[in-house]
Amino acid sequence: MAGIHIPNILLAIPRNPVTAIGLPLALGFISGSPASKAANSNWYHNLNSPPGRPPREVFPFVWSLLYIAMGYASHVAVKSLDATDIPANRNDISLGLALYYGQLGLNCLWSPLFFAGRSTALSLCDSVLLTGTTFYMTKLLDRPTNAKATYLLLPYCAWLGYATYLNVGVWWLNRKKDF
Questions:
Q1: What Cα–Cα distance (Å) separates residue 164 from each residue in 121, 130, 133, 160?
Q2: Which of these, 15, 135, 151, 146, lies nearest to 89 by C-alpha position?
Q3: Separation of first and last alpha carbons in the chain
Q4: Which pLDDT value is given to residue 170?
Q5: In a structure prediction context, what are the per-residue pLDDT tens digits for the chain, which is 179 residues long?
Q6: 130 contacts 160 by C-beta, under 8 angstroms
Q7: 20 to 30 A Cα–Cα from 118, which one of 65, 77, 79, 166?
Q8: Which of 31, 4, 11, 39 minimizes the C-alpha distance to 104?
Q9: Which CA distances in Å does 65 have to 21, 22, 137?
Q10: What whole-number distance in Å separates Cα of residue 100 and Cα of residue 102?
Q11: C-alpha to C-alpha distance for 80 and 155, rounded to whole angstroms
Q12: Rounded to whole angstroms, how far apart are CA atoms 13 and 104?
């Protein structure tokens, strides 16, 4: 079975730990910027939320740590790709890196869908796809990185499960509201 081809530029970014970490941090900052304004809006304050929602000040701190961990996991993955001659490992890492960029795109879409688009339903669809993609990516990268990527990605997987719970709750509790 032929592996997935990852363009060289997408392999070059995570080879350097600074750019590996910098890419998700920068994209997260850019895509999350609508959140700060919207979090102060009447629309956001009028949303019903499920139990367990943390204060909004927690989100930038948590997301920054998760972006650092996911970026470094991509560095670990590409270094493992460079070091292995085992075809199954190369295939798993290649697909895992492709999914990494896919989940990064889905991650960047969530804030604009939820905050700028005010669509709890579309952001929920995005959150479910993001969570599933990230769990599968983590599974693929586990064996070929000797679980190094997994340790970095497990907090992200856990947070995505929690974030999806929050998104489900917001969607469900506000589905009949007319904004």
A1: 11, 9, 13, 6
A2: 146
A3: 51
A4: 97
A5: 456 889 999 999 999 999 999 999 999 999 988 787 788 888 998 999 999 999 988 999 999 999 999 999 999 999 999 999 999 999 999 999 999 999 999 999 999 999 999 999 999 999 999 999 999 999 999 999 999 999 999 999 999 999 999 999 999 999 987 66
A6: yes
A7: 65
A8: 31
A9: 10, 12, 19
A10: 5
A11: 21
A12: 13
Helix (H, G, I), strand (E, B) or coil at 50: coil
Q: What angle do CA 148, 81, 29 make, to 5 degrees?
A: 65
pTM score of the predicted model: 0.93
Using the structure block, give the residue that is written with the tokens 């990064």: 104
Residue 79's contacts (CB-CB under 8 Å, 6 or more residues apart) are: 15
- Is 96 in contact with 49 (CB distance < 8 Å)? no
Query: Closest Cα partner for 53 from 179, 167, 173, 132?
Result: 167
Tell me which amino acid residue 65 is: L
Residue 98: both structure tokens together? 């492709």
Contact of 169 with 50, CB cutoff 8 Å? yes
C-alpha to C-alpha distance for 167 and 50, rounded to whole angstroms: 9
SS3 of residue 6 by DSSP: coil
